[in-house]
Please model this.
Amino acid sequence: MGPLTVIIVIAVVLLVVVVVGYFISIYNSLIRLKNNIKKAWSNIDVLLKQRHDELTKLLKTVQGYMKHEREVLTSITEARTAFLGAQSVGAKAKADNMMTGALKSLFAVAENYPELKADRSFGQFQNRVSEIENQIADRREFYNDSVNTFNIRIEQIPDVFIARMLGYSQRELFKVAESDRADVDVEF
Model:
C-alpha cells in the first residue's frame, strides 16, 4: 500500500467520522427538543392539576355565598370534569380554555358580593388561582416556543431526513379558543 492510498483511506475515514458525528449531533438535538416539549407539557399539566385542586377549595367557599349563581358554578364544574377526562394536548387545551372562561365569569360575578370579596378564604383562593393562571400562561409560552422550534427543525434540511427516519411529525401548538379572545360580558 502506497502513501497516497493511505492518505485517501485516512481522508475517507475522517469524512465518514465527520458525517456520522454531524448526523449524531442532529439526532441528539432533535431528541432534546422532543423531550423539552414533553417537559413543557408536563409543567403545564402540573399547574392545571394545581388549579383544579385550588378550584375545589374556591368553589366550596363560593357556594355558600352564591347559591343562586348556579350557571357560573355549573360552568366551572363542567370545565373541571372536562379537564379530568382530557387525554390529548388538544382536549386539555380545550378544557383549559373552558376553565379560563369560567374563572373570568366567576371573578366578575364575585364583584357583586361584597361579603364574598371580603371573605379571607375567598381572597386567598382567588389570589392563588390568579397566580396559577399566570404560571400557566408562562408555561404555555414555553411549550409553544419548544413546539415551534421542534416544528421548524424537523422541516429544515438536513434535519428533515433524520426526522423522517425517526417518524417525527409536526406537534400541535397550545391554542386559545376563539371565544376566549373576546372580552367577558357580565350582566347584573
